[in-house]
Amino acid sequence: MVLPTEFHSWFSSKGWSPHPHQLNVVDRAFEPSLLMIAPTGGGKTLSGFLPTLIELSSGDHQGLHTLYVSPLKALAADIKRNLGTPIADMRLPIRVEDRTGDTSATQKKRQRADPPHIVLTTPERIALLLTYEDAPRMFAGLSRVVVDEIHALAESKRGDQLMLCLAELQAMCPDLRRIGLSATVEDPDSIAHILAKHPDPCPILYADPGPKPDIAMLDTTELPPWSGGGGKYAIPRVLEEVKKHKTTLIFHNTRAQAEIFFHELWLANDEGLPIGIHHGSLARAQREKVEAAMVRGDLRAIVCTGTLDLGIDWGDVDLIIQIGAPKNVKRLVQRIGRANHTYNAPSKALVVPANRFEVVECAAALDAVNEADLDGEPRGRGPKDVLCQHILVRACRDPFEADEFFETVTTCGAFHDLEREEFDACLDMVATGGYALRAYDRWQRLKQRSDGLWELRDPRASQHIRMNLGTIQDTDTLKVRLKNRMGGKPLGEIEEGFAASLTPGDTFLIGGKVVRYEGLREMTVEVTRRAEKPPKIATFMGTKFATSTQLSSRILDMFQQDSWPQLPQHTADWLALQRRVSKLPSADRLLVESFPHDGRQHTCVYGFAGRNAMQTLGLLVTERMEKAGLAPLGFVSTDYAVLIWGLNSVPDPEPLFEGANLRDAFEQWLSGNAVMKRTFRASATIAGLLERNWGHQRRTGRQASFSSDILYDTLLKYDPDHLMLAITRDEAMKGLVDFGRIEEMLERTAGQVDHVILDRVTPLAAPLFLEPGRVPVMGEGRERLLEQETERLMSAAGLDQIPTEGRKSWRVPY
Amino acid sequence: MNLTCVFRGETLSPLPSGALHWSAKDMLVVSDLHLGKSERMARRGGALLPPYDTTETLTRLSDDIQLTAPKTVLCLGDSFDDIWAANALDEEHLSTIATLQAGRRWLWIEGNHDPGPLDVGGTHLAEHREGPLTFRHIAFENCEAGEVSGHYHPKARVRSASRPCFLMDDRRLMLPAYGCYTGGLNWTTPELRRLFDDRATAFLTGRKVLAVPVPRAA
Lengths: 814, 218
Prior knowledge:
The complex is a heterodimer. Chain A is an alpha/beta fold. Chain B is of the alpha/beta class. Chain B has one domain: Purple Acid Phosphatase, chain A, domain 2 (4-Layer Sandwich), CATH 3.60.21.
């Protein structure tokens, strides 16, 4: 394929010329799979679409031609806008439509009957389309799939789900060609492997990476606080920078932080600069308003989260500010790429550490960016919970043959080495529950017909299945609306747990505005603008990223310096003080500090294994402490340390970290652990063994559904070898538990524990006391405290305590 | 070791499992067993939950019966998740129930899930009076003093621990759900609050029974 003259003239009419990598894609348009690695701003998305536009320019193609998939629905809307320009300018006979959660039901229905040439959508929508009987008709003639931001999809189960869907589409349309578009990543081959139909090759094209970014730490006169993640102290300086630039994106790691920061920013915004906020919990209308204002160039700054990490083309962004340590170098590089979409101009970025420790982490991250040293964890085999869900998707559509479907599944890179037995076990679990006790013979979900095909026992189940599709575990959220006669404007969503903690009159932040909680009506939180109290902070689950292995080791290396000229004085002084009163952690030894504080004994372990692994370490170590009778009460973990408090002091921490049987202890401990239960809930829901949205009849006055924890406990007790438990274990190990990084920590420290006993809190441990997210240890110590508390409440309430025959008896006064 | 309470002059023991023991009458009371729940969900085309709930619930019940050796066992309604589930119980569970019933009086109170007589041994009743107490599944709004009921699956929250609980004031006593796959209704929800007066006490189930006052309405 070559670029037709009309396309050439269109480029020149815009004053552009096609980038070499764009011509390259056109040149290689015949390849069954193609991966392009390009920095943001390289006209990446257009290059992905060039082969499509050229093929469709003749006007011969009937029906769907190209499926564009991106991780964000906002991206679909943006691409629709951007594609509109060349299509209109060149008067191409091409119909482009998006299909996302925001598309109306009527339009969705029409699209199935009469599909446009190009559909812009998300992985979940494709899975949903594949559940309909008419899918083969809708996808007939499909020639190309463009997977945008594939690096982001490849990191999650959404990518696995998408690739399973593509395998099915490929089986329907054997000539389907795939183009993947990716930001700079540490391991392009692994992405190519995921993208291509196995075992087809997938050539990788590289665009010119462009000049090095211009990146620095924001200097402030105000000192960063000891703890927390808000970055509030930097607001005056951030405003100064906003004023100096055309458009600034201010990135935060969590939605809650974005909300607080935005609120504070407005309070300080004396000049009334137009500043907006954008994150995934805001109502669609709110987000669209901000997006439109950005496109018009009306906004000087946007406070945002990961939702703007990806390719939306905002034109005039000339500064990126990252608030809080980026945790991961690759993500920082991708965020920086959001600035200066003009090709070949350096992106400008400022990093704002949110607290004292993050100063160190930011400094390490800047070094890594400058050395283009990206980090990443290898992706494992395709997850089985996603496969189970996909079996349900397949069964919804029409009866299928297991052999043929197995073949299709193994054309996915991630599932290429799936064993037939593994597949059959998944199929069995989907069909019968897979229990040792064959209880559901009559009520199987899938049944094998006499002709060998598998089908749904009850076709009505497809409705259930569609409602439970997807791999994103949304925490239960409630919609927030303004209360008025008109029905109320939707503002966004908050977590159910947070909503439950509100009483009428309480205020909280949403979309940067303080609102007053009025009540709950039909699962909707009603609020007014009458805000007379300082806001509680809405808690959004969001993703808590763990600091990457590579960044952690850079930090440990930095600690070994004699002095720290690259750090601000206040932070260098803090580290020097820590070195004087205790020690600085190093990579090859495990530093443990013990000291009393506030009537409790504290132990601080500097493992530097990332948030998730440190959390696991906290659980493991407190378990061992409980057994040793040290009565631990709780702990809190960060990316670098875990702080444990309890009733007794720890005389010798070494046995707590003995690696030899830690793995065994870990296996034992793991089964009874809260992280397992949470993972079980997530994986079993994906696999279709649990249904989503259980808790939802709750406030209609009926008793709540029981928790998935009970299911987990029951399954573990009666059917410990069940497939779902094996899946849960696998998932927990690589996900929330992150045991691999504990093992890495034990390996590098090789049993070398430095125990420093002090009479008070150390400089490095002090910030941990301010950390949120304390985890209670449900042991003997806490049972004691609970008993004390109930007794206190009883006597405070004046309810009489009458001992009878040495037993306690409670009499209700008449 | 166990805590007792005095209700309408009778000394009762809420057990950590959620059963109520009335030693003067040699009676064990349990509510909302919901036997056959997983089967019912599967039948309705929902998820295929681990089918071990009935075994688990009956195992707990036999433990309590062994512990208290009651002359009478009273099940306070919703013993079966629905009539179908009652009739579909498998042999093993039916024989467990028969063994438990041997040599003692067994009363099934009807619940909203299992109204009407069932094919399982024992006496079926709409409600039952014994001494000063009246046993029924759903609490009456204006009940006589001495009502013992279930149905709501009350649950308490203290120091961020959430536990099924008994609720008691001077007029009525409510039992937590005993069944394995049963959720709970928070003790502060209006539906529960309006049934009890401001001096209500909760008994938390768990490792051991703990008494705590029900938080007053805001």
